[in-house]
Amino acid sequence: MTSLITDTWLDLAIKLGGDGLPVHKPWPSTVQAPALVIVPESPYVTAVPGSAIEVHLAVVVLVLKSRGLAALDDLIVRVIARAFDADWALTGVDSPAIPSDRPDVLATTIHIAQRIEF
């Protein structure tokens, strides 16, 4: 049996990877771009008025640097649209960067949240 929060994550992962785009669980040992990695935010879960919580996740978006900023932007828009379709709210998008441990990729983090009623 999975938890309500885990089920929410799994549903999001399925929707984000709907066209074969690899979606990884938190902290994979290796990732081949293009790919998404879903990780918990801090705070991970917050209380909201009423009988509800809000779950906060980050979606790390990776594309090959050789594909350019346009490829990253296209993937950002696709992820945001699919997150909206799955009832997640956008809370922000970080500036694109080249990770120091992966000079071959462009990356950014999309911050999302979803309210869960009890």
> Low-confidence parts lasting 5 or more residues at pLDDT below 50?
none
Q: CATH class, anyone?
A: Alpha Beta
SS element count, helices = 2
Distance between the termini: 18 Å
Kindly report the spatial arrangement of strands forming the biggest sheet: 1-2-3-5-4
Helix content: 25-40%
Output mean pLDDT: 92
The overall strand count is: 5
Structural summary, described in words:
Helices cover 26% and strands 40% of the residues. The chain has 2 helices and 5 strands. The longest helix has 18 residues, at 68-85. The model has no long low-confidence stretch (mean pLDDT 92).
Brief rundown of the structure:
With 118 residues, the protein is α+β, with helices and mostly antiparallel strands. Helix content is 26%, strand content 40%. The protein contains two helices and five strands, in the order αβββαββ.
Task: Map the helices and strands.
Elements lengths: L3 H13 L6 E2 L10 E14 L3 E13 L3 H18 L3 E5 L11 E13 L1
Parallel strand pairs: 1-2
Antiparallel strand pairs: 2-3, 3-5, 4-5
Offer a few descriptive terms.
118 residues; 2 helices; alpha+beta; elongated; STM4215-like
